[in-house]
């Protein structure tokens, strides 16, 4: 049974975009995924995104995605929202993944803007509507034009927000002005999808975070959000500034690479990456250690 939620905060406040652990031979490590999911929820996450970009979704099969959702729901689904990434640049495929995720027990769906084929806004509207129509699960849009090549315009967000199952947006657009207008006009629950902008987005109305650095600093992110929602902006700012080295260090290269590098340093499941992603070099690992230490992470 899914954890309780409210229309204003449908997936909780702190969600980590979880890596997909692999075994040494590159196969899916379901036991490791369950251990990592349990660790992250025990650390204070209200939910987990599985099969997202940080979960190496471009290089996992549909069957692996379904197995992963089922395993994570089994491990933590009674305590945390398990949101399955189903975004592709093929609407029919995304709808199929959505149905697979629903049958595997997911509590919600994350669907990214179709990438590479650069559809117009009407194409985005029809794509997201089709995915939302495919199941009975609540949907979080994912707006990340730096990867997809196309932003979801505010006007399109307003139209999509009329769908009863489109309830949230993960914002990695990096535009606080547009975010302010969209939060004010859509009524969608807004989640920061850019760790460096967690606090700024909270200040203009975001309700929570979908984080990569949550792999290593969930407790600190929760303290930041609780300080901000409790009206202690000075404390929230102090935590934000203390975490700046972590925000910087975890994105010196691709976020999956650094996340798995950090998990290895902490002795947590992660394992190798699938090509075309490659692991940290020795120099990059030493730099990550320095960045994490500067942000207060004990290795």
From TrEMBL:
Domain of life: Bacteria
GO molecular function, one term: 4-hydroxy-tetrahydrodipicolinate synthase activity
Chief location of this protein within or outside the cell: cytoplasm
Matching PANTHER family: 4-HYDROXY-2-OXOGLUTARATE ALDOLASE, MITOCHONDRIAL, DIHYDRODIPICOLINATE SYNTHASE
Reactions catalysed according to its record: L-aspartate 4-semialdehyde + pyruvate = (2S,4S)-4-hydroxy-2,3,4,5-tetrahydrodipicolinate + H2O + H(+)
GO biological process, one term: lysine biosynthetic process via diaminopimelate
List of residues binding pyruvate: 54, 210
Protein name from the UniProt record: 4-hydroxy-tetrahydrodipicolinate synthase
Subunit structure: Homotetramer; dimer of dimers.
């Amino acid at each position: 049974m899914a954890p309780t939620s409210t229309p204003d905060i449908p997936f909780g406040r702190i969600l980590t975009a979880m890596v997909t652990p692999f075994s040494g031979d590159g196969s899916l490590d379901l036991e490791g995924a369950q251990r990592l999911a349990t660790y992250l929820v025990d650390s204070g996450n209200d939910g987990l995104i599985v099969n997202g970009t940080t979960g190496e979704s471009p290089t996992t099969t549909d069957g692996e995605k379904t197995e992963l959702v089922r395993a994570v729901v089994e491990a933590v689904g009674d305590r945390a929202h398990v949101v399955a990434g189903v975004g592709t640049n093929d609407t029919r495929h995304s709808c199929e993944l959505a149905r697979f995720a629903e049958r595997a027990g997911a509590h919600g769906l994350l669907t990214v803007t179709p990438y590479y084929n650069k559809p117009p806004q009407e194409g985005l509207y029809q794509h997201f509507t089709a995915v939302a129509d495919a199941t009975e699960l609540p949907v979080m849009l994912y707006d990340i034009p730096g990867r997809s090549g196309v932003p979801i315009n505010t006007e399109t967000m307003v139209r999509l927000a009329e769908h009863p199952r489109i309830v949230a947006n993960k914002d990695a657009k990096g535009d606080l002005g547009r975010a302010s207008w969209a939060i004010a006009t859509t009524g969608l629950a807004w989640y920061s999808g850019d760790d460096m902008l967690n606090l700024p987005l909270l200040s203009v109305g975001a309700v929570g975070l979908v984080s990569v650095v949550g792999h290593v600093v969930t407790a600190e992110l929760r303290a930041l959000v609780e300080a901000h929602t409790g009206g202690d902006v000075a404390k929230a700012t102090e935590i934000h500034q203390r975490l700046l080295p972590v925000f910087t260090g975890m994105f010196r290269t691709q976020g999956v690479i650094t996340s798995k590098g950090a998990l290895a340093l902490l002795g947590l499941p992660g394992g190798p990456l699938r090509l075309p992603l490659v692991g940290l070099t020795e120099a990059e690992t030493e730099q990550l250690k320095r960045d994490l230490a500067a942000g207060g992470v004990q290795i």
